[in-house]
Amino acid sequence: MDRKCYRCQETKDISEFYTDKSKTGGRNYECKECTKARVKATRDPERARDRHYRRLYGISLADFNRMVLSQGSRCACCGSNEPGGKHNQWCVDHDHVTGQIRELLCKDCNIVLGLVEDSPEHLQRLLQYIVKHNGTNQTGTT
Question: How far apart are CA 133 and CA 120, in angstroms?
């Protein structure tokens, strides 16, 4: 079975159209190729990031950018100027109980903070452990 794409006007096999149960025949009138091209052309990464920050943290992309500038493009914890991570973006650190935004962190600091669940006691125990073993090799001798 074939269908004509209303955008490119080419007649293609029905499998070249996305399914849509609300349409006659259960398929879209725009072929997959044209749909992908339309979506790609209209995708705005800045708008997507703005929606992401608003949805998760209640701040706009402009607010996020102001935070980056106010921190001198550095991690609020370790001072690194490299955010790290898959998208190389700063992590918005926030209190998981209150939702209050604190500052921006690099990926590594954000991961550590998440693993210790914001516990000062846990961090203190880790610090004591590192100090205890500072300067020793794997076997425990210096």
Answer: 20
Decide if 91 contacts 103 (C-beta within 8 A). no
Q: DSSP letters of 82-104? A: ---TTTT--EEEE-TTT--EEEE
Strands 91-94 and 101-105: antiparallel
pTM, two decimals, is 0.68
The token pair that represents 43 in the structure block: 């995708």
**pLDDT of 79 higher than 60:** yes
The reported pLDDT for the residue numbered 137 is 58
User: What is the domain extent for residue 22?
Assistant: 2-42
Same domain, 28 and 51: no
**How many whole angstroms separate alpha carbon 69 and alpha carbon 35?**
38
Handedness of CA 56, 58, 59, 60 (dihedral sign): positive
